[in-house]
Amino acid sequence: MLVRLYKLPDGAPLRARLEEQGIIIRRCNPYETHLLTSWVGQHFSPKWVSECAVAMAHQPIGCFIATRQSHIIGFVCVDTTARGFIGPLGVGEEARGLGVGRALFVTGLEQMRALGYAYAIIGGVGPAELYERWVGATFIEDSSPGIYADLLPEPPSPES
User: Fold this and answer.
1) 37, 47 in Cβ contact below 8 A?
2) Which of 22, 62, 138, 143 qualifies as a cystine partner to 55, CB 3.0-4.6 A?
3) 49-52-56 Cα angle (round to 5)
4) pLDDT for 157
């Protein structure tokens, strides 16, 4: 999906609403990489752990997190799978439905706009209707599997 960064909603009210609930949206710090990748590994895909590691190596860092009581409850990465891509985006089950995903997503897009991008690409789209509603994202025709063709398989688990 394609996002027009010059037509983004303002993320400040989204972040302020969450702050009232004790949730902070901020850039992840380099010394927190191990905490981020551990949390993502526990809640999401090993592939997302790899993408977080890439985002943390960027300058400026391309990963934003949501925290509550100094614990990670969500994250978003920018410029990881490819330049101009946003994602992965993930929110822990306990924080879903609070607006955390939307605030993280818009914050990541604001970062991309600040870096000079006019458009962002959402690769591997999950909840398309959310992205359409949140930021007016539109589908890119004939883009699947796109960059995700020829993925390496995950190794079998030790239990198999």
Assistant:
1) no
2) 62
3) 140
4) 74
Chain Cα centroid distance, residue 147: 17
Q: Residue 88: is the preceding peptide bond cis (ω within 30°)?
A: yes
Cβ count near 104 (within 10 Å)? 28
Domains of the chain: 10-117 (3.40.630.30)
Those residues with Cβ within 8 angstroms of residue 4's Cβ, 6 or more apart along the chain or in another chain: 118, 119, 136
Strand-strand pairing, 2-4 and 23-27: unpaired
Which residue has tokens 């190794």? Answer: 155
Model pTM greater than 0.90? yes
Q: Give me 25's structure tokens.
A: 């949206």
Choose among 86, 89, 96: nearest CA to 23: 96
β partners of residue 64 = 27, 76
102-136 pLDDT, tens digit per residue, is: 999 999 999 999 999 999 999 888 889 999 999 99
Walking along the chain (160 residues) 10 residues at a time, the average pLDDT comes out as 96 98 98 98 96 97 98 97 95 97 98 97 90 96 82 79
CA 40 to chain CA centroid, nearest Å: 11
Q: Is 80 helix (H, G, I), strand (E, B) or coil?
A: coil
